[in-house]
Amino acid sequence: LATIMKLAVSFAVLALLVVVAYAADPTPAPAPAAFSCTGKDATGKITYKDPSSKKGLSGAWSCMKYHDCKDGKDTVHNCFWLIPLRQYDPQTRSCTWFWNANCDAADKA
């Protein structure tokens, strides 16, 4: 039992080191573009993905937001409901299960 515990602790420490090394990337990420309603549908019936949506460790969280424009005013919506299993899919313009969402896709024309 002690050997199993040592192995589990070693694995946890290794996983933590990998996460820290991944997060310590010295290159700063470019600032995400701000969403603008300029040139967008003004009825509020068409939704648009958040410009900061991306894949990766933070992608799962950033892919949950989307926008609509009503009379030129931006309204932010969120797919998050209790647990983070739903994300915004730009191809269907709706919240869907994360395994069906394609965060990298452009908004459907």
UniProtKB/TrEMBL annotation:
An example molecular function term from Gene Ontology annotations: chitin binding
UniProt signal peptide: 1-23
Keyword annotations from UniProtKB, A to Z: Signal
Highest taxon of source: Eukaryota
The protein's name: Uncharacterized protein
